[in-house]
Amino acid sequence: MADERVIGYVDNLTAFGIIAPIRKSLVITDKRVLILDASSMSSTAASAGFAYVFGVFGRGVANRISKDEIQETTKKLAQANLDELLKSNVDNVALDGVNIESVEITRKNIVIKTNQKTFKYGLSNPDVRNKKSDVYESYVQVLQTALGSKVVAK
Q1: pTM of the full predicted structure?
Q2: pLDDT tens string 29-75
Q3: Distance CA 101, CA 151 (A)
Q4: Domain residue spans of the chain
C-alpha cells in the first residue's frame, strides 16, 4: 500500500491447529493490521513434541524455546513488502483500520473484532505474563498508537 508506515508488531500469537499451534504475528501500520503466518518447521515441531510428551507444561517450554525465532521472523516480516506477503500465503490477512471495531488485549489473549469477523489468538510470548517485563505494555502501546480508543487493555 502506498505511503504506508509500519508502526510496530505483536509477535508470538497462537491459533490452535490440528497437530500443533499455528504461530501468527501482527504487523501494525498506520493504515491496517496484518495477520501474518510466522510458523516455522522447528517451532511447530517443538510445540507438537513438547506438548505430546509433557502436556500443557511442555507447550510452555516450547513457547520459551521458539520465542526468539518467532521474534526474528516477525521483525523480517515487518521489513518485507507487505503486499507481497499477503499474496504469498492465503492465510495472511489485512484488516483495514477503519473496519476494526475493537481490539481487546489481556496478558493471555488478543481478540480483534471487525465488522465481518472476529479473530482470537493466544499471546504466547512468555515475557507477556512477566509483570516485570515491558513486552505486554509495548504491545498495548503499538496497538493504541494505530487504533486509539478501539484498543481495550485488561
Answers
A1: 0.78
A2: 999 999 998 875 334 333 434 344 444 444 444 445 455 666 677 67
A3: 9
A4: 6-153
What is the third-level CATH fold of 6-153?
PH-domain like (2.30.29)
CB within 8 Å of 89: residues ≥ 6 apart: 36, 37
Q: Which of 99, 110, 108 is nearest to 142 (CA)?
A: 110
Are the C-beta atoms of residues 22 and 15 closer than 8 Å to each other?
yes
| 37 CB-near residues (< 8 Å, 6+ apart) | 22, 23, 24, 89, 91, 92
Collapse the DSSP code of 77 into the 3-class scheme (helix H, G, I; strand E, B; otherwise coil) and give the result: helix
Q: Which residues contact 19 (CB under 8 A, 6 or more apart)?
A: 44, 48
